[in-house]
Write a structure and sequence with these properties.
Blueprint (H helix, E strand, L loop, with lengths): L2 E4 L6 E5 L10 H9 L3 E5 L8 H18 L4 E6 L1 H13 L4 E7 L7 H6 L3 H12 L7 H6 L7 E6 L21 H4 L6 E5 L10 H13 L6
Parallel strand pairs: 2-3, 2-4, 4-5, 5-6, 6-7
Antiparallel strand pairs: 1-3
């Protein structure tokens, strides 16, 4: 695991958790925006295609715990796609003493219909590994137990444009090409907003970046 961290004199920090099959580099633009906004950052890199959500949560814990201990204030989480599920698993097991707010971008909280469609294909299983099987809409008891109800402030940003005209066929509209807007929602969430962008670009979209910073500071999004 590699990690990119920026020390800061400000009390609050942000942990960034990327999606399946991606790396910490996907969060680079958003990470720089957080630094400019005065947050310390921990942009974690982990092998999302080789471990399940439970194993990933244990894998990132040492680095995340050191980061949280180094802060004078709260530790926030900003997560893309599967990274939001990883955050939910992590916080159920290793909740920081000074947990701040959580922003999820395109996270399949209700599962992904595309995962339902592809889960039995050998190529899908080989590429996305154990975590890919945990992205389905009908979760088994073990996966459901990893994702209990939330009791912290979570803001969710969904996209409603697709750059996948073929693979996203059959997804309930509106969707971002990977996850339907409906399935990004989560019981107990503090706020939810839809932005005109696609799944992979949520982490680079200017509106998404601005709205994420607003939520981290205020606990709600600006009317969009």
């Amino acid at each position: 695991m590699t990690e990119r961290r920026q020390a800061s004199s400000t009390p609050d920090g942000v942990v960034l958790l990327h999606g399946i099959g991606r790396t910490a580099r996907s969060f680079r633009r958003m990470e720089l925006a957080f630094r400019d906004a005065g947050f310390a950052t921990l942009n974690l890199d982990y092998d999302s295609r080789r471990k399940g959500l439970d194993a990933l949560a244990e894998y990132i814990n040492p680095s995340l715990d050191r980061f949280a201990q180094s802060l004078d204030g709260s530790v926030h989480f900003v997560c893309h796609s599967m990274g939001g599920l990883l955050a939910r698993v992590y916080l159920a097991r290793h909740r920081p003493a000074r947990l701040g707010r959580v922003v999820m971008l395109g996270t399949p909280n209700g599962g992904s219909e595309i995962a339902d469609r592809l889960k039995h294909l050998a190529a899908y299983r080989a590429f996305f590994g154990p975590a890919g099987q945990q992205l389905v809409t009908r979760r088994d008891a073990a996966t459901s137990a990893l994702l209990p109800a939330i009791d912290y402030e979570a803001g969710i940003i969904a996209g409603n444009r697709s750059v996948y005209p073929i693979t996203s066929m059959g997804l309930p509209r509106p969707h971002d090409g990977r996850v339907s807007v409906t399935n990004t929602r989560l019981d107990g969430m503090a706020d939810h907003i839809v932005i005109r962008t696609s799944h992979p670009w949520l982490v680079r979209n200017r509106d998404a970046i601005v709205q994420t910073i607003v939520f981290l500071r205020q606990g709600k999004f600006t009317p969009h």
